Amino acid sequence: MTSSNGQQATQQVGTTILVVMMEVDQADDAVFNKWYNEEHVPERMAIPGYISARRFELDPDDGQANNVMRYLCIWELENDSPLQSQLYKDQNARPTPTKEAAGAVVKQRARGLYRQIFPAAGGYNDRAGYTYPDGTKIAAG
pLDDT grade, residue 2 (50/70/90)? Predict the structure, then answer.
């Protein structure tokens, strides 16, 4: 990925991710996305220890046969300490009208905190390819 100034962009990598999936009727997308994009993400990113947030919508061609929800957010964290912070607790205790409206349209939600197990730190980025035990090599593409 290249940034706007032509430099190679790098992404910080933490050792913990928070994965959140939510199901919202399409008729309620505007309310939900307004809260998530304009309030929730900036609010959480103000907490020390949050590194990044990325939101995704399920590919409609994939359907929901895989028992997953339509919206996914992956929060990159340094570790799990942001979720224990006073600022996090204060934010949760201070609902806004936008948050309450969005919460009312969420039909289903799943959340999981994951700790990195491989590699020990950073991201695996060996692009040399893979050699099977029988000697067959798959070249990096």
Answer: very low
Q: Is residue 6 part of a domain?
A: no
Domain count, the chain: 1
Domain that holds residue 45: 16-116
As given in the structure block, the two tokens for residue 109 are 């939600």
- 93: in domain: yes
Contact 82, 47 (CB under 8 A): yes
Single out the residue of 32, 15, 24 nearest to residue 101, CA to CA. Answer: 32
4 part of a folded domain: no
Distance separating alpha carbons of residues 7 and 45, to the nearest angstrom: 24
In this predicted structure, the answer to whether residue 81 has a pLDDT above a threshold of 90 is yes
Q: Is residue 52 a contact partner of residue 12, using CB atoms and an 8 Å limit?
A: yes
- Answer whether residue 5 shows pLDDT above 90: no
Summarised one tens digit per residue, pLDDT across range 118-137 is: 988 778 777 777 888 998 88
